[in-house]
């Protein structure tokens, strides 16, 4: 133990050399995104086999390939008559969906057939019922259309054909497609479990702010952001945690027992009550990213912790200022979760700036904008201070202004869309 070091009630050495070496370098925003995505991919949990009904919201671990031709057999696409040769045709039976019909006996014969029913061998055409006439003595006549009225085997896909790649989000459409291919289960990567810890004695969890205390806005909102990024967020938010090292260590250690990702708010600086860095040291954490050259959002971090079961857990340190915390969420948490889920790195759509956007020197500037979905143009919003949420509530995403540049009207720039509800798609720009 170094001179002057003491041991707290939680068994944490206070005042000694930290166990985690703080990276003095500040990462470029683009590099930070790539680094956390790679860390997520490396730590992605093993796939599990789930029944189709339980796979919604998960991620395909393997490509979805057909187990048979689609359709697997020739099927009628209309209600009518399967006929053989030229007409008129003598009716010799009926074919309903779900059965295997006998072959047609020869030219001049027909069977009544339902949509989706298997076409009998020997059929040369299907006559629509509304375009046919039937005589009392059991004959059918009509003119066949030039386009065949049935579906051939493999018309949609052939057996073994890849329909969707690994990393595809499983939604009801994917589930239906898998069922049509003959699947009963899917190998998927489960959505990560997330927890949230709020640091800061000055925060109120209810009522109006005042008398030196501010209302916690991240506790109610961050879990919703995490759910939109595909997490299974815990129902309870921990905190506000007391501004002591012991309390920080205890809260984070407990959250890491059940969560794949723990987000914390505040404490990312090195002030007198900022205990996140010493807490990570006490837990033997390793920094993936420690400080990113982005404004707002400085400073933010992502660290990994080895669990007792051998699996890697992550801690995302979000700044205490509300808009800065969301910048850290879209910058670090979003690509990390994509990696953990086995999904592609999120691509950034392009938009055209309709108004100037200031640069931030050597830092990337993430500027809140509203996007005109028709014109694909981005308009900066007001009230965008790092402690403000008014602009965020009106915005569609963050325009990315590269270091050393300014955004001029007409410039094409990337935009980081704010996360939407499952199934929604960002409509503001093109790829």
Short description:
The chain is an alpha/beta fold and about 425 residues long. The protein has helices at about 30-40, 170-180, 220-230, 245-255, 275-280, 320-340, 390-395; strands at about 5, 15, 25-30, 50, 60, 65, 75, 80-85, 90-95, 110-115, 125-130, 130-135, 140, 150, 160-165, 185-190, 195-200, 205, 215, 230-235, 240, 260-265, 285-290, 290-295, 300-305, 310-320, 350-355, 365-370, 375-380, 395-400, 410-415.
Characteristics:
Molybdenum Cofactor Biosythetic Enzyme, Chain A; 7 helices; disordered N terminus; alpha/beta; Molybdopterin biosynthesis moea protein, domain 2; seven-stranded mixed sheet; Molybdopterin biosynthesis moeA protein, domain 3; 431 residues; 4 domains
Task: Outline the structure in words.
Catalyzes the insertion of molybdate into adenylated molybdopterin with the concomitant release of AMP. Residues 195-339 form the MoaB/Mog domain. The structure is a single chain. The longest helix has 19 residues, at 322-340. The protein is built from 7 helices and 31 strands. Strand 28 and strand 29 form a beta hairpin. The strands form 8 sheets. Strands 17, 20, 21, 22, 23, 25 and 26 form a 7-stranded mixed beta sheet that branches. It has a 6-stranded mixed beta sheet with strand order 11-8-10-9-13-12, with no helix packed on it. With 431 residues, the protein is an alpha/beta fold.
Query: In total, how many beta strands?
Result: 31
Distance between the termini: 55 Å
Characterize the overall form.
Answer: elongated
Count of alpha and pi helical runs: 7
